[in-house]
UniProtKB/TrEMBL annotation:
It comes from Paracoccus haeundaensis. It comes from the Bacteria. Residues 176-242 form the Mechanosensitive ion channel MscS domain. SUPFAM superfamilies: Sm-like ribonucleoproteins (SSF50182). Residues 332-354 are annotated as: Disordered. It is found in: Membrane. The chain crosses the membrane at residues 6-30, 51-68, 80-106, 127-148, 154-173. The keyword Transmembrane helix applies. The keyword Membrane applies. GO terms for molecular function: mechanosensitive monoatomic ion channel activity. One of its GO terms (cellular component) is membrane. Keywords: Membrane, Transmembrane, Transmembrane helix. This is Mechanosensitive ion channel.
Length: 361
């Protein structure tokens, strides 16, 4: 009992000394560093527990050298402490990565009109953060496994069994690994970014979230479309804000041949210029085709983003419909058979005079 009592007293003293050491380091050295950088201050606040535990682990590891323990007990205890220390350092590394990404993204805002550069950095940072966190965890697990002699020293039998198991696991994890590598490629090439306006599987929406293996598309009617990352590397899709958020809205009109194009152009220009949705860049009205019964007219008007372009198109249609109904009703599309006979020259009287048409009294 004396041996265990001495061991317990040594360990308690080691924990107390580590706590005093943490208080000294926290108040002197680390606080001086934290005052000079926005990185260290939140790192100290969020990793206080793991750092304190790491110092306790170091103190206990030193205490095992002077404690009255057997060789086997010392080896087992130091191995457990090593695993705990690796877990603490892994947690601190992940916390440091999260803080660094948050500080980096603080300089960019995506809630503004011209947010192309901000969306680029947000997309890259979030994807690389997820990949970095995964790599940190993988390195931590690898370091923990390498502390076991049976894993560190690969034998022939272990390699044979590990090879077969690795083949099975590799086949099972093929979709996950495929999406993981697609995420790395997406972070580098950036075919999509956060808040991009895209059309995927016939649905229009905005990129709301880019995860480690999937992308969340916020559909215009508030539905969510979940798409694997590999989709954007293998399938074609539309990105309306790839290089610039500005879009040109298109409004197609089909009117009768009797329409007055100059008057229609003046009215459309008046509507567009009066709208706050127009960005004062592009406007045009052109006759683009002749059909058998109607004339095809195309109106172009630009807006700052996809949402404003859609609303501008709807506004142009609404006002032009009212204009055609009131000012040019003859320009509304109609079939030839629907035109009244009184719209044509009245030839019945002349034909009756010549006896071609019999006129009954």
């Amino acid at each position: 009992m004396t041996r265990w009592t001495d061991t317990a007293l040594i360990f308690v003293a080691a924990v107390a000394l580590s706590w005093l050491g943490w208080m000294l380091i926290n108040r002197l050295l680390l606080r001086l560093i934290a005052q000079r950088s926005d990185f260290w201050r939140p790192l100290l606040a969020r990793s206080r527990g793991p750092v304190q535990l790491a110092l306790i682990i170091v103190a206990l590891s030193i205490a095992t050298r002077i404690a009255p323990l057997t060789v086997e007990e010392i080896a087992t205890l130091r191995h457990v402490l090593l695993l705990c220390f690796i877990a603490c350092m892994t947690l601190v590394a992940r916390t440091a990565l999260q803080i660094w990404v948050a500080l980096h993204l603080r300089r960019f805002r995506i809630d503004v009109e011209d947010n192309l550069l901000a969306r680029k950095h947000v997309t890259q940072s979030r994807i690389l953060q997820q990949v970095g966190s995964l790599l940190i965890v993988a390195v931590g697990i690898s370091a923990a496994l390498m502390s076991f002699d049976s894993v560190r020293q690969y034998g022939v039998s272990l390699l044979a069994s590990a090879g077969a198991a690795g083949l099975v696991v590799g086949l099972a994890l093929q979709p996950v690994l495929r999406n993981l590598f697609a995420g790395i490629q997406l972070a580098i090439t950036q075919p999509i970014r956060i808040d991009d306006a895209v059309i995927v599987e016939g649905e229009w929406g905005n990129v709301e979230e880019i995860g480690g293996t999937y992308v969340v598309i916020r559909i215009w009617d508030k539905r969510r479309l979940i798409v694997p990352l590999s989709y954007f590397m293998d399938q074609p899709f539309q990105n309306w804000t790839r290089a610039d958020a500005t879009l040109i809205g298109v409004v197609m009109l089909y009117v009768d041949y009797a329409v007055s194009i100059p008057d229609l152009r003046l009215e459309a220009e008046r509507i567009v210029r009066a709208s706050p949705l127009w960005d004062r860049d592009v406007f045009a009205l052109q006759v683009t085709d002749f059909r058998e019964t109607v004339t095809e007219v195309r109106i172009l008007a630009s807006a700052r983003n996809a949402g404003r372009a859609f609303d501008l198109r709807c506004e142009i249609r609404e006002h032009l419909l009212a204009y055609l109904q009131t000012d040019q009703p003859h320009a509304m599309p109609r079939h030839r058979s629907s035109i009244q006979m009184d719209d044509r020259p009245d030839r019945s009287a002349g034909l009756a005079d010549k006896g071609i048409i019999e006129v009954n009294g």
